[in-house]
Automatic annotation (TrEMBL):
Natural source organism: Rhodotorula taiwanensis
Subcellular location(s) of the protein: Mitochondrion inner membrane
Keywords: Electron transport, Membrane, Mitochondrion, Mitochondrion inner membrane, Respiratory chain, Transit peptide, Transmembrane, Transmembrane helix, Transport
Protein name, as recorded: NADH dehydrogenase [ubiquinone] 1 beta subcomplex subunit 11, mitochondrial
Quaternary structure annotation from Swiss-Prot or TrEMBL: Complex I is composed of 45 different subunits. Interacts with BCAP31.
Domain of life: Eukaryota
Lineage: Eukaryota, Fungi, Dikarya, Basidiomycota, Pucciniomycotina
Coiled coil spans: none
Primary site of residence: mitochondrion
Length: 100
């Protein structure tokens, strides 16, 4: 009985996943399927385009500003701050000599 149940379940699951035939959109050579405007006319923007352009550009600009001004969280920055605090507490001032 289990063998028959497996054999019956096999083709049913294959039929269920079938797409019903070949679906192929013939390429037209047009970008996004839009027809070019007549000569002398401008392309009319859709309602969502300005929202997308300004929203995407603004978020990229905001991201760049936030990355530029992010706090230093590296171990080197923390160690530099600790060393400066220790030297200031000891009354030492760092002197930078040019190495030869």
């Amino acid at each position: 009985m289990p063998r028959r149940a497996i054999a019956v379940a096999g083709p049913a699951s294959q039929r269920r996943l079938a797409s019903g035939g070949v679906h192929y959109n013939e390429p037209t050579g047009r970008l996004f399927g839009e027809q070019p405007p007549a000569p002398g006319q401008k392309r009319v923007k859709q309602d969502w385009e300005n929202i997308y352009y300004y929203g995407f550009g603004g978020s990229m600009l905001l991201g760049a500003v936030l990355i530029y001004y992010k706090p230093d969280t590296s171990i080197e920055g923390w160690a530099r701050k600790q060393a400066k605090e220790k030297m200031a507490a000891a009354g030492e001032t760092p002197s930078y000599q040019k190495s030869e």
